[in-house]
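S.,

Sequence below, as promised.
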Amino acid sequence: MGKTAEDNFRIEVWDRDEQTLSETISRSPDSTVSQAAWQAAIRRRPGMLLIHYNSRHVMEKILTPGEVKIPPQTIIDGSVHAGLDVALGDLREWHVLRAWCRSCSHHATVKPAGLVQRYGKGALFSSIERALFCTSCDRGGPVRLEIHMLPRN
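The prediction came back faster than expected:
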């Protein structure tokens, strides 16, 4: 597969010896989005070695403070967000959420304010997805939340 503009900025998690790549948290063609993902990764990956790349060049490298709470394998296998579990408090006013039912493929727009009011700003997508149900087929989960940006005027 050839390189695309999406490969420009990426964030990787490595073991402490920098021998094994555990996961790639984020890929983005946008520097600002990548910086936001970098800040979120530092908060969400305590005790792990993070490397922020611009193409092949290392922009930042940090061993994050704190102790490892969750093994990297659990994070990758347990999250539909490629290892980065998003909190409702991380969303901005220009974000729109879309919920997808995995059973019947029905999708609908979800208001972040309603979820914040019900679950709080610290609630993670992984826990909210388990609590949601499809309004079309009335089955409880599995529902997947996706973040989209409002169109510019």
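The radius of gyration is 17 Å.

Coffee later?
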